[in-house]
Write a structure and sequence with these properties.
Elements lengths: L5 H11 L10 E4 H16 L6 E8 H15 L4 E7 L15 E5 L9 E7 L4 E8 L2 H4 L12 E7 L2 H15 L4 H22 L3 H29 L8 H26 L6 H15 L4 H13 L12 H8 L10 H6 L6 H8 L21 H19 L5 H14 L7 H15 L40
Helix pairs in contact: 1-5, 2-7, 5-6, 7-8, 9-10, 9-14, 10-13, 10-14, 13-14, 14-15, 15-16
């Protein structure tokens, strides 16, 4: 990391804190991936009423000029836009730069921030951030600095997590202070006001956080998909031999969008802040006891990480109506935004089905499809049981020693065996609890996202309902 860069300062600040802080998940991103990602995050401002502060670093003014027209539209919805860059010709003359709420901060060419690519968005209801710096000549290694612009690579991370965004914004203001002191002071006051509102928003209903993020995540995935589709039309394989790597980078970031959303849902739930990682770990251990194939273990782990993508739907469907509509027809279920957005990625179609049908009951009394017995896919039965077990265990450990809590949580699941849960799976859960009581530890990914691609296996991703077509207006996700 560049000495004195915002990325380096943020990492040092997080490492210096003794209390639990959100993890920083780094990655390497191609330029086209970052462009699509930033456009999606920026355009979400146009669909909101958050009136955010936006601070962005463009390296050089010429890159800002390519985006200046769309930034004019964003300025009409934002409280302040601050643009940092080493100025080029026309940097200050563009009409967007003349808007009262748009501020340009000129960076010296040797300023480490002039080697970074930042997008920081801060408002009470929407926070997002991209924080990257371009790879050095040494980082590129033997291949050298790329001649094709699309091959340029950046190291860093992106997130929706408010605490990290606030910290980065504060560091950006510190960097602005010696360059434009008046601007820095006005930004400090506005950020302090937003921080106060964020504290209130952080204690809001977790379901609202999921509802707010769903359209943003869907936009990120859609923009990245458009970028992916455009590669074949714009790139000559002879000129750009690394197209497969770029495509994997795009797919990885689409998956990360969902994982980051799940991470924020967990961080927001103060009562059960480790639900996703713990359910994912339980799924892996459970699958290993059942000796499931490795691709199915991965699929269950990913379903565990994403299982709260639609947290607590407000209106569960009427089971009688579902049965009446689905009689003599293909399986059909109501649409939930998060699960539907998962289907935007072909690699996550099966994951969406697992998550959707985790609430089916063994006796057929569950939702959303009213499935019963072996009609319920195995992975759905496993996920549903382990989600409930983890929720109950987390609740009990607030008041009891862990060993007692494990026994009670298991007993609660056993009481619903044959009615809500598959009796054979409850027997397997009994074995797992015995192992946990004897000291076995669960594998936990803990949202160390990296590429996330290890969780996907496109060659082993069949539909869970073979032979059944999904109703076009009411898919299973």
């Amino acid at each position: 990391m560049l000495n004195g860069s915002l990325l380096q300062k943020l990492v040092e600040r997080q490492n210096a804190q003794t209390r639990r802080t959100p993890p920083i998940n780094y990655g390497v991103y191609y330029k086209n991936t970052l462009v699509a990602l930033c456009h999606a995050l920026e355009d979400s401002i146009l669909e909101s009423d958050g009136n955010p502060i936006m601070i962005t670093a463009f390296q050089r003014g010429k890159w800002y000029l390519q985006e200046a027209d769309r930034y004019g539209e964003i300025a009409d919805k934002a409280q302040d836009i601050v643009i940092l860059a080493a100025p080029d010709s026309g940097f200050r003359e563009h009409p967007t730069s003349q808007k009262a709420n748009v501020e340009l901060v000129s960076l010296a060419p040797d300023d480490p921030v002039a080697q970074e690519w930042h997008l920081l968005i801060l408002s009470p209801g929407y926070t997002a951030m991209v924080l990257c710096q371009e790879l050095s000549e040494a980082d590129y290694g033997k291949t050298g600095v790329p001649e094709v612009d699309v091959e340029r690579k950046f190291y860093g991370f992106w997130t929706f997590e408010p605490e990290l965004v606030v910290a980065a914004v504060e560091l950006a203001i510190e960097h602005i202070q010696p360059l434009q002191a008046d601007l820095a002071q006005s930004l400090k006051a506005r950020v302090a006001d937003i921080e106060g509102q964020l504290l209130h928003h952080r204690s809001a209903d977790v379901a609202q956080v999921s509802k707010d993020l769903n359209p943003i995540v869907s936009r990120v995935v859609r923009y990245l998909s458009d970028c992916h589709e455009g590669l074949g039309e714009t790139i000559n394989a002879d000129v750009f031999p690394h197209q497969p790597e770029l495509e994997r980078n795009i797919v990885s970031n689409k998956l990360q969008a969902f994982l980051r959303m799940a991470q924020l849902i967990d961080l927001t739930d103060l009562q059960n802040p480790h639900a996703a990682s713990e359910v994912s770990g339980l799924c892996e251990a459970f699958a290993q006891i059942l000796d499931l194939p490795s691709w199915q273990v991965k699929r269950l782990r990913l379903a565990g990480l994403l299982h709260r993508i639609d947290y607590l739907p407000q209106h569960e469907p009427d089971l009688g109506e579902i049965r009446a509509e689905s009689h003599n027809s293909a399986l059909s279920c109501p649409l939930y935004p998060g699960r539907q957005s998962l289907r935007m990625m072909p690699q996550l179609k099966a994951i969406a089905q697992i998550i959707t049908h985790q609430s089916e009951h063994w006796d057929g009394s569950g939702t959303p499809g009213g499935l019963s017995y072996d009609e319920i896919p195995l992975e759905c039965r496993i996920l549903g049981l382990l989600v409930e077990f983890q929720r109950r265990l987390n609740q009990l450990t607030q008041d009891k020693p862990r060993s007692e809590a494990l026994t009670q949580a298991l007993s609660d699941c056993q009481a619903a065996s044959g009615r809500r849960w598959d009796p054979k799976l409850v027997e397997t859960l009994t074995l797992l609890v015995m192992a946990l009581q004897q000291g076995m530890t669960l594998p936990q990914e803990a949202f160390k996202l990296r590429s996330g691609l290890w969780l996907l296996n496109p060659e082993q991703n069949p539909d869970l309902f073979p032979g059944q077509s999904l109703h076009p207006s009411a898919s299973t996700a």
